[in-house]
């Protein structure tokens, strides 16, 4: 400020003297420069004294905490993580979380975040209320059959086991939703589509209720998604002992969960269709599973399920042609022969198995009675299977103790992190019997396979199948046997 006043006074002096303003002398300019230099030196001295005093005061005073805006703190927090139902599983998405997991996401807001679980991220709003996740799966298969006495069965085919795209999410702790469409047959097919509500009954006991187009909770592999099955195709119990409407139906499914198991009941009509001129079929299905032994490295699984189905007037065809040596050889089936006039079906089954360390075993058996009109005897289907696997890399089987099924694995050493992934050897024997009908056939298959999980959402699978069929009707009758070699590459988001 003193320097500013000195400069202004000098300019005023020059302006007041016209002659000087026009042609200042050398002496005048030298005097002005000397005056300004003195003022600058004085100002620098004062600044030095002020800086020294400030430094001494800061050194002797206690350090005050730094105040940081909440948003900055949130951005520096550790990434949000959802704890899985078991350490060998990938974290569940918003629609599959328990009440405790949903509460943890709501009560720990950390700004707008993304949580990388398996494949694609889960997006969280800043307040923890909203969650959203894209979903999808790509399962590409190739299959070659040989050894049959029928040339029509010795074929090589390719196909998309699943080609899905969808989404899931939640609002707050209780409300959730999921939607998926499948394009594997080169047409749009709506599969899972529901809204749901979850809550606690008491500590250690909670429930959820789903309404919409629902996937069956029926048997161990029948309740396992196509992207998580240990073999390329589900067992004969899952594919043959099934409601006439198939794996899906529109309805409601309440489920109850406790620490060692779960139970569900499902009431549905038909799957999604365009027929509204006649009444739907009605299906009531229930299942429960229990883990009487449950530790960090082992589980004993016991399960039972059953369904009853009343068929509509336009759903009376009960003909079955069930896969036995792979999904993508349409000629390789066990056939019931033509069968019409069905009024309803009743089916039931049991499950027993578990795992200890990297080794797992599961046995399933089921029976289905299809009621026929005109006083004819029931069409009885019987199936059973025994399956097992061993992880050579020491990973635990991807058993989901909440649902009593297989899920997406959490690989110990993913290949994308420089590891070997998870390598699993599998084996299965399965049998299917339609011979209670005069036109019904029977068959069995023995499968050995290897699964290589690159990480939690990418896998390669190879199955070698020895199959045997004895059909009494259709194009390929009589006893026949052969081999099928199948492979799959799968990615699940």
From TrEMBL:
Q: Which range is the signal sequence, renumbered to this chain?
A: 1-21
Coiled-coil regions in this chain? 33-60
Record keyword Cell division present: no
Q: So which domain of life are we looking at?
A: Bacteria
Q: Does the keyword tRNA-binding apply?
A: no
Mind listing the UniProt keywords for this protein, alphabetically? Coiled coil, Signal
Q: What protein is this chain from?
A: Phosphate-selective porin OprO/OprP
Name the source organism.
Answer: Sphingomonas aurantiaca
């Amino acid at each position: 400020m003193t320097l500013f006043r000195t400069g202004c006074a000098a300019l005023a002096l020059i302006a007041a003297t016209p002659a000087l303003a026009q042609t200042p002398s050398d002496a005048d300019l030298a005097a002005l420069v000397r005056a300004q230099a003195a003022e600058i030196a004085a100002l620098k001295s004062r600044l030095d004294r002020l800086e020294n005093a400030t430094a001494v005061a800061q050194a002797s005073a206690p350090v005050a905490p730094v105040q940081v805006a909440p948003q900055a703190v949130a951005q520096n927090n550790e990434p949000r993580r959802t704890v899985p139902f078991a350490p060998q599983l990938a974290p569940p998405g918003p629609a599959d979380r328990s009440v405790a997991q949903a509460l943890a996401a709501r009560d720990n807001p950390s700004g707008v975040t993304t949580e990388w679980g398996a494949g694609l991220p889960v997006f969280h709003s800043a307040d923890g209320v909203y969650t959203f996740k894209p979903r999808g799966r790509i399962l590409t298969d190739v299959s070659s059959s040989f050894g049959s006495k029928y040339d029509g069965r010795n074929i090589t085919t390719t196909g998309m086991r699943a080609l899905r795209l969808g989404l899931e999410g939640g609002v707050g702790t209780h409300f959730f939703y999921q939607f998926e469409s499948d394009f594997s047959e080169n047409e749009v097919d709506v599969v899972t589509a529901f809204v749901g509500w979850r809550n606690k009954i008491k500590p250690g006991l909670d429930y959820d209720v789903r309404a919409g187009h629902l996937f069956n909770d029926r048997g161990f592999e029948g309740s396992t998604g196509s992207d998580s099955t240990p073999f390329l195709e589900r067992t004969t119990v899952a594919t043959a002992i099934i409601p006439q409407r198939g794996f899906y139906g529109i309805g409601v499914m309440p489920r109850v969960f406790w620490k060692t198991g779960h139970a569900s009941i499902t009431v549905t009509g038909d799957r999604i269709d365009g027929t509204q001129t006649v009444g739907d079929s009605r299906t009531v299905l229930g299942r429960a599973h229990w883990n009487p032994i449950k530790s960090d490295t082992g589980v004993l699984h016991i399960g039972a399920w059953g369904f009853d189905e009343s068929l509509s007037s336009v759903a009376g065809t009960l003909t079955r042609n069930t896969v036995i040596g792979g999904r993508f050889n349409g000629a390789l089936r066990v056939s019931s022969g033509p069968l019409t006039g069905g009024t309803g079906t009743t089916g039931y089954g049991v499950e027993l198995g578990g795992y200890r360390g990297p080794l797992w075993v599961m046995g399933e058996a089921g029976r289905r009675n299809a009621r026929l009109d005109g006083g004819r005897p029931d069409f009885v289907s019987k199936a059973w299977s025994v399956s097992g696997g061993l992880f050579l890399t020491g990973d635990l089987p991807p058993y989901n103790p909440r649902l009593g099924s297989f899920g997406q694995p959490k690989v110990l050493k993913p290949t994308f992190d420089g590891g070997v992934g998870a390598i699993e050897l599998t084996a299965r024997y399965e049998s299917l019997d339609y011979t209670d009908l005069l036109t019904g056939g029977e068959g069995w298959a023995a499968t050995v396979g290897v699964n290589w999980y690159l990480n939690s959402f990418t896998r390669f699978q190879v199955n070698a199948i020895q199959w045997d069929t004895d059909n009494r009707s259709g194009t390929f009758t009589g006893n026949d046997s052969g081999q099928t070699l199948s492979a799959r590459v799968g990615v699940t988001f």
